C-alpha cells in the first residue's frame, strides 16, 4: 500500500521534477556501485557519484576511471542508460522553458505577485498609462486583462498579460486580484458608448466581488451610467467625454495657446493631492491656508466640503472641520510610490 502511494506521488510530480529525481537516483546508485566494486580507485562514495555524473553526462574528465572488467561494464551501462536519460532531461527542460515563455506571451500563466495594478482593456489609454508608469518609475507590477489580444510580449511592454474575460472569476483569480492594490477599467473602443458603459459596470461588479476593498478606477462615457458605476463599487469614475468636451471648448477661445499641451504638462509635472484640514487651519480663511501651503511649495486650488468640490473659492471663505483641501505639488522624479 505504501509503495503504491509512493508510485502515485511520483507520477503526479511535474515531468521536470520526475526526470531530475530519476537522474539523481540513477547517478547515486552507479556511484555507490563503483565504490563497492573498486574501493581502491574510488575511495569514497562521493568520488563514485562524481564519476557517475561526469560519465553519465558524457563530459568525461577522466580523473576517475574504472580498471576492472566489472567496473568497465558498469561504466558502459551507465553511459547507455544515464546518457540517454540526462539528454532527455535537458531536452525536456529546454522544451519546458520555451513552452512557459510561449504561455506567458499568450496570457495563460497566472500572476503570483502582490500589491500590483490590474489594467482591464488594451487600448491607447492603457498603452499610454503603461508608458507613464515606466517614465515616472511607478513602483508597481502591472497585470493586463484582455480578451481581444492573442499575445503580448513581456519584454516589449513589461506587463504580465492574462488572456480572458474580465468578468470571469477564473480570469480575475489568474490576475491574483485578491492581492491587488488597484484596478483600472477603461472603456472598450470597439463598442458603442452605451454598450461600453454596460461592460464597464459588469467589470466593476466582478472586480468588487472578488476583492471588496480594492481601489477601482473606471472610465464611463455617458452621464446616465456614472451613478451606476458608483453603485457597482467604483471608487473613482472618470468621464473622458466631459474632459474632451471641455478641452474643445477651451480651445475655441484660446487660439494662440495649446490648451492640451498646458494640461498635459501640468499633469506630467504636478500631482493632485487632497488632505483633511488640520486643527491649526480650522476656522481660518482660505487665503491663510493658501499662504501656509505655499510655504511648502503646495499650490492650494480648492476644497471638498460635504462631498461637493469647490474650486478657486473666495479667499474669505472660512475653513470648517471635515473639509479636505485640494492642492498641487511638484512630482519628485527620483522618488515614486
UniProtKB/TrEMBL annotation:
Membrane topology listed for this record: Multi-pass membrane protein
Keyword Transport: yes
Location in or out of the cell: Cell membrane
Keywords, sorted A to Z: Ion channel, Ion transport, Membrane, Transmembrane, Transmembrane helix, Transport
Tagged with keyword Membrane: yes
Transmembrane stretches, start-end: 15-37, 49-67, 73-92
InterPro entries according to UniProt: K_chnl_dom, NAD(P)-bd_dom_sf, RCK_N, Trk_Ktr_HKT_K-transport
A Gene Ontology biological process term: monoatomic ion transmembrane transport
One cellular component (GO) term of this entry: plasma membrane
Limits of the RCK N-terminal domain: 114-238
Protein's recorded name: Voltage-gated potassium channel
Amino acid at each position: 500500500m505504501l509503495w503504491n502511494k509512493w508510485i502515485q506521488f511520483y507520477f503526479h510530480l511535474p515531468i521536470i521534477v520526475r526526470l531530475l529525481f530519476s537522474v539523481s537516483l540513477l547517478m547515486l546508485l552507479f556511484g555507490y556501485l563503483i565504490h563497492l566494486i573498486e574501493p581502491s580507485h574510488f575511495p569514497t562514495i562521493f568520488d563514485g557519484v562524481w564519476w557517475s555524473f561526469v560519465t553519465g553526462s558524457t563530459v568525461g574528465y577522466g580523473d576517475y576511471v574504472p580498471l576492472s572488467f566489472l567496473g568497465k561494464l558498469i561504466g558502459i551501462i551507465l553511459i547507455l542508460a544515464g546518457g540517454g536519460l540526462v539528454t532527455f532531461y535537458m531536452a525536456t527542460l529546454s522544451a519546458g522553458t520555451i513552452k512557459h515563455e510561449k504561455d506567458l506571451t499568450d496570457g495563460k500563466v497566472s500572476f503570483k505577485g502582490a500589491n500590483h495594478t490590474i489594467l482591464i482593456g488594451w487600448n491607447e489609454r492603457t498603452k499610454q498609462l503603461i508608458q507613464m508608469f515606466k517614465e515616472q518609475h511607478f513602483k508597481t507590477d502591472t497585470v493586463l486583462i484582455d480578451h481581444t489580444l492573442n499575445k503580448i510580449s513581456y519584454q516589449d511592454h513589461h506587463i504580465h498579460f492574462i488572456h480572458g474575460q474580465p468578468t470571469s472569476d477564473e480570469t480575475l483569480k489568474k490576475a491574483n486580484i485578491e492581492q491587488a492594490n488597484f484596478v483600472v477599467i477603461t472603456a472598450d473602443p470597439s463598442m458603442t458608448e452605451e454598450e461600453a458603459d454596460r461592460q464597464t459596470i459588469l467589470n466593476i461588479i466582478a472586480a468588487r466581488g472578488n476583492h471588496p476593498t480594492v481601489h477601482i478606477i473606471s472610465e464611463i462615457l455617458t452621464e446616465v451610467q456614472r451613478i451606476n458605476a458608483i453603485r457597482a463599487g467604483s471608487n473613482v469614475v472618470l468621464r473622458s467625454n466631459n474632459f474632451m468636451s471641455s478641452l474643445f471648448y477651451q480651445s475655441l477661445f484660446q487660439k494662440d495657446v495649446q490648451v492640451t499641451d498646458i494640461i498635459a504638462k501640468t499633469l506630467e509635472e504636478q500631482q493632485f493631492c487632497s488632505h483633511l484640514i488640520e486643527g491649526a487651519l480650522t476656522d481660518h480663511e482660505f487665503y491663510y491656508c493658501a499662504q501656509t501651503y505655499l510655504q511648502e511649495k503646495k499650490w492650494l486650488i480648492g476644497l471638498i466640503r460635504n462631498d461637493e468640490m469647490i474650486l478657486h473659492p473666495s479667499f474669505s471663505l472660512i475653513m470648517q472641520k471635515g473639509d479636505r483641501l485640494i492642492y498641487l505639488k511638484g512630482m519628485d522624479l527620483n522618488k515614486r510610490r
